Amino acid sequence: MMKDIPAVRMHRISKRFPGVIANDGINFEARRGELHALLGENGAGKTTLMNILSGLYRPDSGEIYIYGKKVHLRTPRDAIRHEIGMVHQQFMLVSSHTVTENIMLGNPGGFFLPFSQVETKIRDLSEKYRLKIDPEARIWQLSVGEQQRVEIVKLLYRGADILILDEPTSVLTPQETEELFRTLRTMTAEGHCVIFISHKLEEVMAISDRITVLRGGKVVATVLTGETNPRALSEMMVGREVLSRVDKKTLSPGEVILLVENISALNDRGLPALKKVSFSLRERQILGIAGVAGNGQRELAEVIVRLRPVTSGKIFIRGKEITRASPREIIDLGVSYIPEDRLGTGLVARLRIIENTILKIYRNSQFTRGPFLNYKAIQQHARNLINQFAVATPGLDTPVKFLSGGNLQKVLLAREISSQPALMIALYPTRGLDVSATEMVRKAILQQQENGCAVILISEDLDEILSLSDLVAVLYEGQMMGIFPVGEARLEELGLLMAGKEVKVN
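and the corresponding structure tokens:
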């Protein structure tokens, strides 16, 4: 019977890259009417496998069947023709085009459709799924979180029958995540096949019907969700027991490191992004800032590290005003910065790993020999960081653009932490990371706190904020909705504040 035929069957799929076997004879099957979760460490091969299904890559060997029919998916257009759509972790958007233009690209009818008709549908989808985007905005003006929303709406706009979602909830509040889950449940009830890639084990347990775990490019197991648990899944993914929560010590705050007084700033479109934001942060304190992406988080980080000017207000680091200092002066004051865009702002894609690790410290005397760089010392420094942070790479000379998302984050974190900062600003440091990499990043942040560092942690993962922070704040439309000791903050109340609702936190 047709209903018994799998929506997707991938048979003995293999894919190799230079020095890496990404997929090694993988068998994968997803059924109509089910939500099938795909789990694995960063670099395990799950995104490569889905890139093959979406037509972005061609397998070196293996076969693909869609509803029982063998297909050859040579291009993304072939996948679209077979009603397969994917939201990629690395966004497939044209930065100079508007949201509407990006969503229209590749669709039947293309630009012959009236813009007003397309914009109306985009607004309807945005409202229905609570994915706030401006159809007239250009992609380069949007935060990473807003760009991910565009990708989700683009998939919904195309009406894909087989939906592949790679970390789709990383920019949503708990309430919005539940709204999306209800939508996905409706879709599967109607017969859609949904393949869901996520590093959040509790999320996978809540939404999926079956789970396939990859490790080292191979399938470890496919299990029914009701017959497993997060601990068993994490052990299958990593090959060892992984801590779901890291131990946080109670530390006494020291002197004030950062003082922000009534700062306001504009976004890339010239509109208000920050509105009279004030707070202070001391040594050995972690301030967790929650909020849906696009509410001023990126702009706040950028004004502190002097990548964006303020329109009013003042900023002090260790009592020294730095409101109009240069980025170089900020670095010299011991400020490290982990931006949300790993390849756009954090790392230089075409440069090698060894070059990216010294971008901020190549002037230091230990890495110079007269007017020249001391390559031997730089090489040893980079090798130590790669080993310390367990970066999976063929070698130091590998351009970082060839690394997986988790390994990109490890290289970025290694560079910023190695400078022994007095103040660290981290935007979404575990976004898209597997449980093992997430554990490593969180431990690294807490170690910096123990070393005396003041930390600003910006995240949409409220569990992460509550487990790591000493103080919790919420940004909504550029305004600070309040700052609370972590012991007084509750998940549901913070979620409401993230949605702009006035609540009393106690």
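(Above: one complete record from the training split.) The two ends are 57 Å apart (CA to CA).
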